[in-house]
């Protein structure tokens, strides 16, 4: 019998990739993907635990399914990912109609678990060991590596794919639940990664984004030889068909010169580096246990700018962390002002159970202060993003065309010429008008307008006069 599957994914790119792999494994079993929960007989939520808000959203989405389950008891409802690992049985208590709870380390078991449920085997729960529930090796083994199957239709676009190079995290920043729910840091063997990228290239994929919670801490040792991220970039760079290589997320202390040199020297490497600072205050950084001081972050940023002058650097910040004073916040604001990040993701601190911060420090910054600091930092960043984007006016950029822009998708344009969106080598979004056959191509554009978030361009064709070429400056890597 063909079953209909609906999957909702929240959270980071790692979760998007996990969902892609779950869908691939279920399609292989004959499942068909549908666009709404009411059309589905199997409903899965791939969840995030990084902030309380993400969890609340999932619990309320689950609440909305309660009646559907009463009316159609054979609908199977599953909770996957970080919240499944964190809350485990509690999910069955809070939402008794849930049939399946599967942590990020057991996703490959889903087809079998669904078969057991359908056969009347009752509720199923599969999660990894807690980090203190066994030896390092036992805990590592309980997070089973899972990357074999890909599903073209679940990728961001057919030309772009995420590739996991490691799982877990060992940094234990005090606010963060990731080391608990995604387990110990483990790097995949380079041969496996290379084989996966080669396969993606044969399927028409042109851009890959290597994923890891601390992707630049990648280290795989075999036969006494260590492979680091820089080595991996050299290895993957040779794969024909792949035009762009990105990697996220970087940990500031592991931003080594050899990595920066690889990014500078390998033309396929995107000059886009996401390196979260989290705070500009040394006191806060110490309480966060980030392992660096603000001046070390600045020094790292200076090395990036020196080695790769055109690099677009982006960051994450947490405002309102335990004990953050107005002076602490101003130190963060100063860091944002001077660093000229392409953009920053700013979050209000959300206490996470079982983290060090939650047990050691009081969540003592009032919600309205967190909100104000969040808005203030965002305003500083947006002004910088806008200013830096304005500098692109009249410049030539090259984009990988991803597809119709949001507004043209809404108008359901059927014509050949429509509003398209693409990304530059530095991860800047450019909207432009073009023929739909440009989708999936690398296309040169001339930028004529810009705001804080988007550049607007027009396709450079051979018919454009010499004066425009003059404006277009030297072809660059923006
Ligand atoms: N509260 C708020 N933001 C958090 N992040 C991680 N943990 C928390 C938390 N408890 C943010 C960090 C991280 C990003 C993915 O989420 O900025 O870089
Ligand atoms: Fe969380 Fe820190 Fe690991 Fe990032 S490096 S996933 S913030 S513990």
**Radius of gyration over all CA atoms, rounded:** 23 Å
How would you write the strand order of the largest sheet? Answer: 2-1-3-4-5-6
List the uncertain runs.
465-478
Give the name of the CATH superfamily of the largest domain: Methylthiotransferase, N-terminal domain
How would you sum up the major sheet? Answer: 6 strands, parallel
CATH class of the largest domain: Alpha Beta
Assign a percent range to the helix content. Answer: 25-40%
Shape verdict: globular
According to CATH, the fold-level topology of the largest domain is: Rossmann fold
Number of strands: 21
Q: Which whole number gives the mean pLDDT?
A: 93
Strand content: 15-25%
Terminus-to-terminus distance: 50 Å
Q: Which compounds are bound in this model?
A: 5'-deoxyadenosine, iron/sulfur cluster
Question: Total domains, how many?
Answer: 4
Structural class estimated from helices and strands? alpha/beta
How many separate helices? 18
CATH arch. level architecture of the largest domain: 3-Layer(aba) Sandwich
Question: Explain this structure to me?
Answer:
With 478 residues, this protein is of the alpha/beta class. The chain folds into four domains: 4-140, Rossmann fold (3-Layer(aba) Sandwich); 155-270, Transcription Regulator spoIIAA (2-Layer Sandwich); 276-390, 2-Layer Sandwich (Transcription Regulator spoIIAA), CATH 3.30.750; 396-477, OB fold (Dihydrolipoamide Acetyltransferase, E2P), CATH 2.40.50. The protein is built from 18 helices and 21 strands. The protein has helices at 13-28, 52-64, 66-71, 82-87, 90-94, 110-118, 136-142, 178-182, 190-202, 229-237, 257-265, 282-288, 294-307, 326-339, 356-360, 367-390, 406-410, 466-471, and strands spanning 4-9, 32-33, 42-47, 76-81, 100-102, 124-126, 160-164, 166-167, 186-187, 207-211, 219-222, 225-228, 244-248, 272-274, 312-319, 344-348, 396-404, 417-424, 429-435, 442-450, 454-459. Strand 20 and strand 21 form a beta hairpin. It binds 5'-deoxyadenosine and iron/sulfur cluster. 5'-deoxyadenosine is lined by residues 50-51, 175-176, 276, 278, 316, 318, 347, 349-350, 352.
């Amino acid at each position: 019998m063909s079953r209909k599957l609906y999957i909702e994914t929240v959270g980071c790119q790692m979760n998007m990739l996990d969902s892609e792999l779950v869908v691939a494994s279920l399609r292989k079993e004959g499942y068909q993907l549908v666009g709404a929960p009411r059309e589905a007989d199997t409903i899965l939520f791939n969840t995030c635990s990084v902030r309380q808000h993400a969890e609340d959203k999932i619990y309320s989405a689950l609440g909305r399914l309660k009646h559907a389950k009463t009316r159609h008891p054979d609908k199977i409802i599953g909770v996957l990912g970080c919240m499944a690992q964190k809350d485990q049985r509690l999910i069955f208590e809070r939402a008794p109609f849930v049939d399946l709870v599967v942590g990020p380390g057991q996703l490959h078991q889903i087809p079998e678990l669904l078969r057991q449920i359908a056969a009347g085997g009752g509720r199923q729960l599969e999660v990894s060991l807690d980090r203190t529930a066994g030896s390092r090796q036992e805990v590592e083994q309980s997070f089973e590596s899972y990357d074999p199957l890909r599903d073209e239709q679940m990728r961001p676009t057919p030309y772009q794919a995420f590739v996991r190079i490691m799982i877990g995290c060992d940094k234990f920043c005090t606010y963060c639940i990731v080391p608990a729910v995604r387990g110990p840091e483990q790097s995949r063997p380079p041969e496996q990664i290379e084989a996966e990228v080669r396969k993606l290239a044969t399927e028409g994929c042109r851009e890959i984004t290597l994923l890891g919670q601390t992707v630049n801490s990648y280290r795989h040792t075999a036969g006494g030889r260590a492979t680091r991220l820089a080595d991996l970039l050299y290895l993957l760079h040779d794969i024909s068909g792949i035009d762009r290589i990105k990697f996220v997320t970087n940990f500031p202390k592991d931003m080594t010169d050899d990595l920066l040199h690889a990014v500078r020297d390998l033309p396929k490497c995107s000059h886009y580096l996401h390196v979260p600072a989290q705070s500009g205050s040394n006191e806060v950084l110490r309480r966060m246990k980030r392992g660096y001081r603000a001046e070390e972050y600045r020094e790292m940023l200076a090395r990036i700018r020196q080695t790769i002058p055109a690099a677009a650097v982006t960051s994450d910040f947490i405002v309102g962390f335990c004990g953050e004073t107005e002076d602490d916040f101003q130190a963060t604001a100063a860091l944002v002002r001077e660093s000229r990040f392409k953009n920053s993701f700013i979050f209000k601190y959300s206490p996470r159970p079982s983290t060090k911060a939650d047990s050691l420090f009081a969540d003592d910054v009032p919600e309205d202060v967190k909100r104000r600091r969040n808005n203030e930092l965002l305003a500083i960043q947006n002004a910088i993003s806008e200013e830096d984007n304005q500098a692109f006016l009249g410049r030539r950029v090259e984009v990988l065309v991803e597809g119709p822009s949001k507004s043209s998708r809404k108008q359901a344009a059927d014509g050949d010429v429509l509003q398209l969106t693409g990304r530059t080598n530095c991860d800047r979004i450019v909207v432009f008008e073009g023929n739909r056959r440009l989708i999936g191509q690398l296309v040169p554009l001339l930028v004529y307008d810009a705001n804080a978030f988007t550049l607007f361009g027009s396709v450079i064709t051979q018919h454009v006069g010499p004066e425009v070429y003059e404006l277009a400056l030297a072809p660059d890597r923006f």
